[in-house]
Amino acid sequence: MSIKNSELILNPDGSIYHLNLKPENIAANIIFVGDQDRVEKVTAHFDSIDFTTQKREFKTSTGTYKGKRISVISTGIGPDNIDIVLNELDALFNIDLKTRQPKSKLTSLNIVRIGTSGSLQSDIPVDSFLMSSHGLDLNGLLHSYQIDEISNLKIENAFVKHTNWSTKKAHPIIIKNSKVLENKLTSEKIYKGITATAGGFYGPQGRILRLGLQDAELNNKIDSFQYNTHRITNLEMETSAIYGLSKLLGHNAISMNAIIANRANGTFSKNPSKVVADLIIYTLEKIAE
After folding, report:
1. pLDDT above 90 (res 263)
2. Residue 202: pLDDT over 90
3. Overall CATH class of domain 23-288
4. Which helix (H) or strand (E) holds 163?
């Protein structure tokens, strides 16, 4: 049965609604950045660019780097935007937009997030690179989907017990990265750890301005959590949504974090733009290998 117009929305030119893309505009190797201005900082290294478009915060450029076709997409901030981007990207590859039916042969995408983040551990310094071994979903987005196949109840329940997690909040979910992309992008200079994904920047990440927090000690509990060799190393707003939706849809995903702040030490990078620029070059080189 065809997917209804209200569920899979297309623009008058046939492009998908939010991303403004047609299937021929996008590569199977995709880099996610949050900031739309960061798209050009990535594509500045490309040998050529053959397509660019933007609608709202979603800017896409597709081109080649050392012979490999790559697309760069700005997702904006937060898990809700990731829900839009990943579902629409998957539709471009795995749904026939004319018949509005899923294809019998599915395409698996390679998705690499390049983002900024703050370290929660004193031994992971500013200006370093961190690869997310797992995404810890603290925001509840993934509970809208059938997640039993990607959930790791042992670690999740240990985290709930350690933090005395409120039953009024969505149950945390932990999702592993793509081993294929981990092997491709890893090196001796890369730190690894669990990345917690919050649904906001202030209260959900323990920042207090004028509003009190439901659990003022939550950040300390997150910092001190350990399960076997696993610990939570950083906190941001996209990784768990990328990992969860990618796993459910059959795509590979990895999150590469430029550490520009250390919450444990109270330090901030003196040159955060250089850290991001260096991570962009590192990631492109690894993708092109």
Report:
1. no
2. yes
3. alpha beta
4. helix 153-163
